[in-house]
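Side project, low priority. Logging it here so it doesn't get lost.
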Amino acid sequence: MTHLGNHQKPSRLLGKLPPLRRQVFLNQLPLSLLMAFVVVIAALLYPTSFEEPTFIASLTLHALLLVASLAVPWEKLPRGAFLVIPYLDFVAIGLFRGGNQQFLTAVGLLIFFPIFWLASSGFAPRTIVAISGLAAILIVWFPVLIQPGGFTPDQLVRPLLFPLVVAAYAATVVAVTRTVNVQRKALEAKDVELRAALDASQQRERLLETIVDTVAVGVVVVDAEGNDMLMNATQRALHVHALPQDIADPKERELLVYSVDAVTPVEPEERPVRRAVEGQAFTNYQVWLGTGDKARAVSTAARPILDEDGNFDGAVIAFHDITEMMAALEAKNDFVANVSHEFRTPLTSIQGYLDMVLEEPDLPPADVHNYLSIASRNVDRLSSLVSDLLSTDSPTLQLSRTDFSSLVTESVSSAAPAAELNKVRLVSDVHGPLLAWIDARRIAQVLDNFVSNAVKYSPDGGTITVRAWARGNDLLCQVQDTGMGMNTEEQTEAFTKFFRARSAIARSIPGIGLGLMISRTIVAKHGGSIELHSEPGVGTTIGFVLPGCLASNGGSAGGLRAKPLMDATP
């Protein structure tokens, strides 16, 4: 098995070197490789070259310079210290040319490698041009100067064209390098500028995204073809409601968009985004997104985006979720209608009994007194309704010794006209007086709420039985009907403010959803409790217990708790 763990590629080794040392080595490497190639040729064709001391000295110096370029920590030395390598390359090339006459012409061309390195370094360009020319002269003169038998002036003059070419080459490289450096610096400055502009642009984009995602309005930006360019988080959440469940990637015409009735689908060309893409500007265009309980009502607005020439280039569409607002408006309308109806009921009773008194002057005084008493009680009921609307949380009690059985009789009498309309039979099952320390007006309000509810929720007739009895010092009361009844969920919500049962709403039964909540508050203030049992289609039984209020010598509300009402018997 071959183990490769300790063998690393040269590229990885170079990657670990400091940048300056790696650059010096790579600049020296081409000349060294070329020298190695020349050595191979000399070994094959001119083996006698290895007998020349200058040739051996040249090869040794080249090897040392290659090792030095890699091993010397140039990054720790003074700036430009690495240029000693190309300067010594001149010496190595001169020795190589002097030690091997067979390569005189070709070896001279090697001088262009260190010249290019020096001229492109950017250090002392004029000096480098002069040194390059001088080095070229010495390189071409060196073989002439060391040849046996001396030399002639003609031998020194003939090769002078080569140094001039070398100097011109060095000057050209210096000029090109200087131009490139200027361009590089300009590009670097431009790069810094562009990076700063990019950073600023990205920061503005993040700021815009944050602002757009912060607003509670859905925002969509589309191009001229209707493609989404921007959609904030609010709109993404709204868009989910419009997605059909059976289509993974729906088209615009497949989205669940409905008109203001939340039932009729909006035609594709009339949908907000399509209208905006067509260049229309609009405000408060209402649609529904989705179906069922999760449907959302939105008010949309759109404005076109124009280019420099005033041509349509896209649009911005805003989606404002108004579901809660519409629900609140509907609740307000229902509340006003219900309150009006609740006011109309006692007013109708007052008007009816007063008309009877006025239209029949021969009525016995007892009947007149009875009718006027009923009218007076309905006036009190109107006053109580107003009080309920102004304060539903903490009623103030005014306790007095009251015959509870008379309250039952008055409540049943007051409900008689409505019971007759619904063909409901009212039965009072109260035996003897039940003297109790209670707030008569408030407890009468509770009785009226229970009995009127029983009448209202028995639209198809039936029987309503009102029972009241004593158990020790506790007063118990129960109202039982054979009406519509409620399911378990409705019973749980029955004492919630403004709650209306679905069956009551469906059959347009009047009410404002405050009666049971107020009744429970009144009974609780007396120290008592209310129990409710109901079954759809069978009827409802509701009652309360007022503990410790039936004391023959007087007592106070808020005594001991009684047993559960539904377990008690008269």
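Brief comment: The longest strand covers residues 296-306.
Revisit when time allows.
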